[in-house]
Design goal:
Helix content is about 25%, strand content about 25%. It has about 200 residues and is an alpha+beta fold. The chain has a five-stranded antiparallel beta sheet with strand order 5-6-7-4-8, with helices on one face. It has a two-stranded antiparallel sheet with strand order 1-2. Strands 3-9 form a two-stranded parallel sheet.
Length: about 200
């Protein structure tokens, strides 16, 4: 199988793709229509995560807090990572994740880090009334459109095979771990399974 890049081309006996269904469909438009239609039936939600490095602990030893969006919180979860892993591993900083699962067309995907921080900041004082902006040392924003597969009725019948109809191309993704949810154990399992299939084809 040949992969063409902007500057070169490379030949491979087998290729294992671990992209999202949408990206695979975009990269391989010559796949048979029935396989492409299976890819397009797979639904997912994206994720937006703002990570904050703080001078002080935000919560009283809480690691993960699920938040009621109906009460006006602008994000779904708050996780204080350094209540799980000691802050000494982060130079004494306290690491807080503010995250949300969202539809791909949600405005958050178009917002800058500064815009999201301004939106999220007022709510941090609900976890600690002493919090103020001077606590912030640094921040990072991550966005991913393919973060959480959403299975519907008969999902198992809509999952395309690991071996695609394109010669030498295999595909394994989060959508393949059904009926389980995302997780490292399941990623390792599906990785081993697709690798076995690819090797057995040689």
């Amino acid at each position: 199988m040949t992969i063409n890049t902007q500057t070169d081309s490379h030949e491979f006996d087998r290729i294992i793709s671990t992209t999202s269904p949408g990206l695979l469909a975009k990269l391989t438009p010559n796949l048979p229509e029935d396989y492409l239609s299976q890819l397009k039936k797979l639904k997912s939600m994206g994720a937006v995560v703002l990570i904050l490095s703080l001078k002080h602990a935000l919560t009283n030893k809480h690691y993960w807090i699920n938040l009621p969006k109906a009460d006006g919180f602008p994000f779904l979860i708050l996780a204080e990572h350094t209540n799980f892993i000691n802050p000494k591993h982060y130079g004494g900083d306290h690491i807080v994740y503010c995250g949300d699962y969202l539809e791909a067309d949600h405005p958050y995907f178009e917002m800058t880090k500064e815009e999201l921080y301004a939106k999220f900041l007022p709510f941090l004082s609900k976890f600690n009334s002493d919090f103020n902006e001077s606590w912030l040392k640094d921040s990072w924003l991550f966005k991913e459109l393919y973060a959480q597969p959403v299975p519907f009725v008969n999902h198992s019948q809509n999952i395309p095979p690991l071996k695609t109809p394109m010669e030498g191309l295999f595909w394994a993704s989060m959508s393949h771990v059904y009926p389980w949810d995302r997780g490292t154990n399941y990623a390792v399992e599906i990785g081993r399974r697709v690798a076995r299939e690819a090797v057995n084809e040689i």
